[in-house]
Amino acid sequence: MVQFHALGLLYHIRSGDRLAVNKLVQKWSKSSLLSPFATCYLIRLAAKLVEEDEAGIESPFFQFIESCLRHKCEMVIYEAASAIVRLPRTTSSELSPAISVLQLFCSSPKPALRFAAVRILNKVSVKHPQAVTSCNVDLEQLITDQNRSIATLAITTLLKT
């Protein structure tokens, strides 16, 4: 938790200087953070820099976000997948690693993970319905989920694809 607060404070101090924020994210993305909260915050900062950068997907920050899809903590994996999906200029092929992670979350025994995955897949299906078609089998299984919110989101996502 200390790393999260330290990173937040450093960002707040340097938020006016784009180059300083760039260096901050570069430095912390190369070191291994112990706190998953700090890693999630760093993913959000990196995604913000990727959005503002003209290089976009070729940015080293995008590679950092993509590498976080293989993290051991589910919260970090979810945040990385969510950040990739929220990027404005992504193609279906660039979304595929995030979609495959969300597909794994759809079969999770934890209802919160299933809901989070279906919620993001629902948002993706608006812009990139072809990218979500690989998850149709998993989404069909979620139609009969005990949680009605998950089932409803699964149905609406399937209708969009």
From TrEMBL:
BP GO terms, sorted: endoplasmic reticulum to Golgi vesicle-mediated transport; intra-Golgi vesicle-mediated transport; intracellular protein transport; organelle transport along microtubule; protein secretion
Superkingdom per UniProt: Eukaryota
Domain (Clathrin/coatomer adaptor adaptin-like N-terminal) ranges: 1-161
A single Gene Ontology CC term: Golgi membrane
Coiled coil (UniProt feature): none
InterPro entries cross-referenced by the UniProt entry: ARM-like, ARM-type_fold, Clathrin/coatomer_adapt-like_N, Coatomer_gsu
Gene3D superfamilies hit by this protein: Leucine-rich Repeat Variant (1.25.10.10)
Protein name: Clathrin/coatomer adaptor adaptin-like N-terminal domain-containing protein
